[in-house]
Amino acid sequence: MATDHDDAISVEGQLRFSEFLSFNLWFIWRRFKRFLILIFFVAFVYPPLAIAGVLGPGGKAAEGKEWAYFIWPTILLLCFVGIYFGAKRAFSGNKLLNQPARFRFSSQGLDASGPLSSGTCKWEGILSAEESHSLFLLFFGEQQAYIVPKRYFGDASVLPQFRELLRAQLGGRARLRPGA
């Protein structure tokens, strides 16, 4: 990590699959949070209560049908397995994700470059910025984002400066972690 003469912040690194998977899971959680909470309840809270007879008619679980309560947990598990393998396929099949990347953030916007690609985006082109526990996500499309792992910054003391740059340039479109 370095800061240039115009207070630009430069970072570089190579995205790991675990970070890409984290982005995918984070994105799905943000998009379908209410639905996932409902599925979690149906899959993991309701079955034990029903089997115990708490929710069944007359306080009894349906005789011989306890196995049916585990259909939802199985479906939920298969969804996560599908997400994992879909992310694995997308990550391994995209050469741009599998190359070192360098980002330069300034008051003008951001420059992204790597051995196979490069590009510039003004802050007006960034729809929103989100911060997770290990990533900064700068969305330039509804489902497209620059993924910038915090480890790219090396020195954690630069993170407040980067957050301030995001707040200054994006205002309310920068949703950063509380207390950060």
Residue stretches low in confidence (pLDDT < 50, at least 5 long) are none
Highest CATH level, the class of the largest domain: Mainly Beta
- How is the biggest beta sheet arranged? 5 strands, antiparallel
Q: CATH homologous superfamily name of the largest domain? A: Pleckstrin-homology domain (PH domain)/Phosphotyrosine-binding domain (PTB)
Q: Total number of β-strand segments?
A: 9
- Main-sheet strand order equals 1-2-3-4-5
Q: What is the mean pLDDT?
A: 85
What is the general shape? Answer: elongated
- The second-level CATH architecture of the largest domain is Roll
Instruction: Find the structural class using helix and strand composition.
Output: alpha+beta
Q: How far apart are the termini?
A: 19 Å
The percentage of residues in β strands lies in: 15-25%
Textual characterization of the structure:
The chain is of the alpha+beta class and 180 residues long. The protein has two domains: 2-14 and 98-175, Pleckstrin-homology domain (PH domain)/Phosphotyrosine-binding domain (PTB) (PH-domain like, Roll), CATH 2.30.29.30; 18-93, no CATH class. Helices cover 39% and strands 23% of the residues. The protein is built from three helices and nine strands, in the order E-E-H-H-E-E-E-E-E-E-H-E. It has helices at 17-51, 71-93, 159-170; strands spanning 2-3, 9-14, 100-106, 109-113, 118-122, 128-131, 135-139, 145-149, 174-175. It has a five-stranded antiparallel β-sheet with strand order 1-2-3-4-5, with helices on one face. It has a four-stranded mixed β-sheet with strand order 8-7-6-9. Strand 1 and strand 2 form a beta hairpin. The radius of gyration is 22 Å and the shape is elongated. The two termini are 19 Å apart.
